[in-house]
Amino acid sequence: MSRSYVHVQFGMTARFMPGGWHGAGTEWSAELVRGFFTAGDRPATLSPGVAAVLILLARPVLRLHLALYKLDVRRAQFPVDNPERVIPGPDPVRLMFIGDVTVSGYGVLHQGMTTVAKTARFVAETCGRGCSWTTISANDLTAARVAKMSTLDATPVDVVLVMLGVPDVLLATSTNAWKSNLETILEQLRNHTEPNRRVVFAGIPPMVDFRPVPPLGRKMLRLQIDRLNSVTHELASRAPDVSFVPFPDWRVGDMYVQDAFSWKSLHEMWARVLAATTLQALTDTNSDRRESGSENLGAS
């Protein structure tokens, strides 16, 4: 019988046999994953199969960070005021945001400081129009939960911004499940929204950059973030009505106020990137409408 062995330094020799991977022993080592990771923060380039095995074996590590994440969220600052959800102006752009803590407003005092509100304001200011928006959010919201919603009632919407992923990283969601859930979400949106609406998938933030995480946890979390973001990017590249926007390099600019990290500045930076992609999506929508109108005139 042919068997392939993979040694991982955080504790197992795994072997592949018909039926799947099987652990053999618990050789706990103080080193990191030999042969699979570089000396730096980011994981080395891995084949999809090897990456999947590593994430499977790292589930206990990710579950620990899930528990720490839940504790952190309970203690974190979130806006306590009511959102306005409307910016006055002609021909309002209609937005919908679906997501976890990035939509809820992690780390800021007021709704106007959130990524959602800032994105809407940047869009309105740039195109000289009003803006209205709705949200579907929860701190533990996963792609699977959104995919199971019976209907995404987003009919009066021009652009839907999907900002999911943090809980899915910590739950070690497989790339197949992630892809399937995103495809279901897209299908739901296409079935319940206007035909010319656009969807923007936001990349998963580099969550390991914003809290102290031991080296092994950092590498595993980065690996899982990269895997899911890669799937999202590939899915968006195949759909003409979908865009993908990666999280920006947050180290550019002033992110500290009196030596304290500024979540307000981070929300604003993320919002500017999302707004730029949203504006491009609106431009694409207008182009499609003009082309459709020209075709209709030609047919008549």
Automatic annotation (TrEMBL):
GO terms for molecular function: hydrolase activity. The keyword NADP does not apply. Pfam families: Lipase_GDSL_2. It comes from the Bacteria. Keywords: Hydrolase. InterPro entries: SGNH_hydro, SGNH_hydro_sf. Residues 97-254 form the SGNH hydrolase-type esterase domain. Gene3D superfamilies: SGNH hydrolase. This is SGNH/GDSL hydrolase family protein. It comes from Lacisediminihabitans profunda.
